[in-house]
Amino acid sequence: MHSGSSWPNAQWVSGQNNNFMQYGDGNSTYRPIVSLDVSAHEFGHGITQFTANLIPGTQESGALNEGFSDIWAACVEHWAAPNKQTWRIGEELFTTTYNCIRDLQNPKSTYTSEGQHPDTYKGSYWDNNGEAHTNSTVLSHWFFLLSQGGTGTNDKANLYNVTGIGIENAQLIAYRAESMYLNSSATYTDAMNTTIQSARELFGNCSPQAAATINAWYAVGLGVGFAPITTASITARKTSATGEPTSYEYTATPYLGATYRWYVSGMANNPQQTDLINVFDWYFPCKTTKSVYCTVSNYCNSATSNSIAKTGECTRLNSFIVSPNPATNTVTISTIQNTSIDQTAISTTFDDVRIYDQQGNVKKYQKNNKTRQTQIYTSDLISGVYTIEITDGTYKERQVLIIQK
Ligand SMILES: [Zn+2]
Fold it and tell me: Which residues of the chain, if any, have pLDDT below 50?
């Protein structure tokens, strides 16, 4: 409906019982506010009200609401009047000074009646008070870049390169997100996530359209750009001191949003751990070699890393227990249990046990065959300080043993 006198605006009015649009007849600066794109913009508010129902106002939902209306304005004008300036809103309304209300191709243009608007999320000209038309151009400029493509550097100093997919494809993505996924309190991050999801569903996870959607968001300062997984690699870092138990931390090449699956040679039920970029404290039993690799996958594709083999060390300092100590007639020797790479308890085996007196004479010798625990009778030893030694034939370890009668 025609509204007031010399009112330089137009709007969608939602009411309890009715919804309508009203248009002003302009003033010395504006011709009557009835251009095709402005009409489509107001109809766009109606579409939004009955789909995502983005709350108007100073929240980000308000900026998205205005941004979608400009998107539909551009789409309708492109469809009905392709020779007009698709990316300028209200370009026909001005006689002098300005060339449009908002410029979706160049939101920072000084020739817009609303003044300079941001082309980067929270970049220059972003309104911290949340004026919806001002902050809407981040969304509508995203849509321009998705449609037409572009290269440049945004206000976050991110270099971007978007290959346009055409307005016909771009509008399918925008409409799917608005009509199926966005809700009334949506934020810019929600708009990014739902349009990316929509592009994947419409065109495929790894499609040029999905890539352009992601890259266009990166261009306006949100997200990280399209990142197909090209190669995967891992490194290993020892996290234990010299000797047993030996543990390593494995780390994979980071990819944002990727899933990591870790495989260990010779073990059942691989992968051992999933979704961690780092795996910590994997224990390698003495003399045991395991090789580890991982697969990295994301929404687009996957890759398999190199494999790194590590062998557990065997210096067994303090790795056995003498009990009781002081002892009387018997003493039990057992190796300490560690947790193996497959999370089961393990302990090192030993063969020979010797007990020495303080002069270094062997007072006891017991031959074992790869045992983890043994008992020695000490009833024939007199009270005193002894040294007890275990060996596996390669490594030796000693502790003090006290006999007390
Ligand atoms: Zn509006």
Answer: 317
Number of compact structural domains in the chain: 3
Catalytic residue among 41, 78, 117, 133: 133
- Is residue 42 part of the annotated active site? The answer reads yes
Contact 131, 114 (CB under 8 A): no
Assign 44 to helix, strand or coil.
helix
Per annotation, catalytic residue among 42, 60, 77, 313: 42
Q: Ligand 1 centre from 38 Cα, in Å? A: 8
Question: How crowded is residue 207: how many other Cβ atoms within 10 Å of its Cβ?
Answer: 16
Structure confidence at residue 274 (pLDDT): 83
Q: Are residues 240 and 185 in the same domain?
A: no
pLDDT for the residue 26: 66
Compute the distance from residue 147 Cα to the ligand 1 centre, in Å.
21
* The pLDDT of residue 396: 82
The reply to whether 302 falls in a domain is: yes
**Cα 48 to Cα 51: distance, rounded to the nearest angstrom:** 5
Give the pLDDT confidence score for residue 93 in this predicted structure: 84
Tell me whether residue 224 is in a domain: no
Residue 5 lies in a domain: no
Tell how far the Cα of 191 is from the centroid of ligand 1, in angstroms.
18
For residues 242 and 389, state if they share a domain.
no
Q: How far away, in angstroms, is 214 Cα from ligand 1 center?
A: 26
> How many angstroms separate the alpha carbon of residue 308 from the centre of ligand 1?
59
Contacts of 79 (CB under 8 A, 6+ apart): none
- pLDDT tens for 205-218 read 899 999 999 999 99
| Domain region containing 375 | 320-403
Same domain? 64 vs 185: yes
Q: Could you tell me the CA-to-CA distances from 367 to 253, 364, 374, 393 in Å, in that order?
A: 50, 10, 10, 11
244 catalytic? Reply is no
pLDDT at 347: 62
Residue 343: the pLDDT is 53
What pLDDT is stored for residue 300 in this prediction? 84
